[in-house]
Protein: 50S ribosomal protein L3 N(5)-glutamine methyltransferase
Organism: Pleomorphomonas diazotrophica
Amino acid sequence: MTDTADDLITVRDLLRYAMSRYGAAEIGIGHGTSEAIDDAVFLILESLHLPIDDINPWLDARLTRAERQLIVERIDRRIDERVPTPYLVGKAYIQGVPFVVDPRVIVPRSFIGELLFSEAFSGEGDASLIRDRDDILSVADICTGSGCLAILAAMVFPNAAVDAVDLSEDALDVAAINVDRLGDGRVGLHHGDLFGPLEGRRYDLIITNPPYVDDEAMAELPDEYRHEPEMALAGGLDGLDIVRRIIEAAPDHLNPGGGLLCEVGSDREILEMIYPDLPFVWLDTAESEGEVFWLSAEDLGVTEDM
């Protein structure tokens, strides 16, 4: 009996095989890619330790038997077990930065990664939400998971010390790997519930991508998402249990002139009904519209004499 890998010789062959299997299986997409072909390309190129930005130079490359077998096995697991591709290859990218991931953490895909590098945080012009990147001296990343946003914040704000917090010790073990690989000594990891480990500390910026999937959506999640830690996704009946706690606690941890940047998915209308007096600023990215909000410290009632 012929093994599938015996018949697939080139990268082009493997990409065709992947797309045929993806199309027949109607897999779920959304762990760093929005199209099936991008998911397949990422799986193949990352498995071969090739640059992931363009598959075209490699399409006619002939692969070794071991390479072909590895990719076929990963494609088969992607389909048969619905394992998200980042878990299969052990890596996910945000803003071109590679982060180690495994099933102990949610797959990094926060829109906040793009926003940190955007005009909104450039410290220049009327569109900027902060005074100057160099003036941001302290950042808290709440629900840090793999540590990706904390590490990106350290890259964006060169003078900032970053405290990253998560309730999951497993997640912090993965975050520690990423901090060791990518950090420069300015990211500290803390185990605890939201601001619990940060008592008495205040920050120029708080960023957070908390759990925000409501109970109904949790019950209907595609199989791919069930490989992720439930605690990193589930946000209660309306999805906002953790978000509410963050908003209510943030004023005690913000410096005047600072602000809170929080991702909430599609819960904008609910949040605005809960907090009708808060002037949420909703931010868009290339792949999202109104799924991340900004509240300044002053909007949250922080004053100079606090």
